[in-house]
Amino acid sequence: MSLDEFIRKAQSEHSQREFDPKLRLEKWLYELNELFNAIEAALIRAGLESKNILNVRKEMHEEFVGSYSFRRLSVFVGEVPIVFDPVATIVFGGFGRVDVRCGAGRTRLIAIDKDEDPDTKIPLDQRDWKWVVSDPAHPMDYQDFSIDKLEYILDFVVKENGRP
After folding, report:
1. Do residues 31 and 23 make contact, with C-beta atoms less than 8 angstroms apart?
2. SS3 at position 121
3. Domain for residue 11, yes or no?
4. Cα separation, 151 vs 136, whole angstroms
5. Residue 12 lies in a domain
6. Largest separation between any pair of C-alpha atoms in the chain
7. Which of 52-61's residues contact partners 24+ apart within 8 Å by CB, and which partners?
8. Which domain holds residue 64?
């Protein structure tokens, strides 16, 4: 392939999947809401009182999507505060990241393409996303997130913080 063919092909592919920050942000907020609703429901089903779950509005500005607000989830298990803190929708290797923290203990939930071999012509906001759990010490090692993994995540961040 010649250089001019390469450039034409790259420009054609780019124009077919033009980045729309408004649509990307809408998708991010939708996926974030779905994640937090599922986590809240699972915690309540497991016996956590709803008064121990706090939703706090957070403001953020990202260069490519602008300013927006969303909810941050704080959970109190006994006296242990655990925060699900969205940090960005534009992240390397993913579509968004939520840090799960308890003091110094932390892990990450990262939204990625559900399809192992995605059709890059489909805009990101029209693709199916899935959440994975990533250990900050080993960011390339991840496991699919499910509500069944919630106990593991909570236990991990609490133990990493030095609590039993």
Report:
1. no
2. coil
3. no
4. 18
5. no
6. 64
7. 52/76, 52/77, 58/85, 58/86, 60/86, 60/88
8. 19-160
Question: What is the rounded distance in angstroms from the CA atom of residue 87 to the CA atom of residue 119?
Answer: 26
The C-alpha atoms of residue 81 and residue 73 are separated, in whole angstroms, by: 10
* DSSP three-state, residue 105: strand
Q: pLDDT per position in the chain (164 positions), as tens?
A: 778 877 776 665 554 456 688 888 999 999 999 999 999 999 999 999 999 999 999 999 998 888 999 999 999 988 889 999 999 888 877 889 999 999 888 899 999 888 877 767 777 778 888 999 987 777 677 889 998 899 989 988 888 766 65
Q: How do the residues of the chain divide into helix, strand and coil, expressed in percent and rounded to 5?
A: 35, 40, 25
What is the tally of structural domains in the chain? 1
